Predict the 3D structure of the following.
Amino acid sequence: MRTEDLWYTGYIAAVTPLLVMSLIGWWKSSRRVKQLEQQLMQTPLPEDPQRVENTIEALAAQMNELANAQEFMQRMLLKKVEPQPKATTPH
């Protein structure tokens, strides 16, 4: 057997399992995508607009609290407030 033939055989032996694994992965992922698309299409939309509105208002309130906390931390970091001395009590 010639050296080139040996190299080709080795190359094919190394590449074939990788190709098979890639095809199996592609097949499984395409099946999973189809399942997720079907699941998404079957998900009902919220029918209660009041519930959706309440959820949005609650999220807005939490975002407002988060923004206030961030502003407070930014002021504290910019001022580099030194800690207040602890109060001393008489013995």
The chain is about 80% helix and 0% strand. The chain has two domains: 1-43, 46-80.
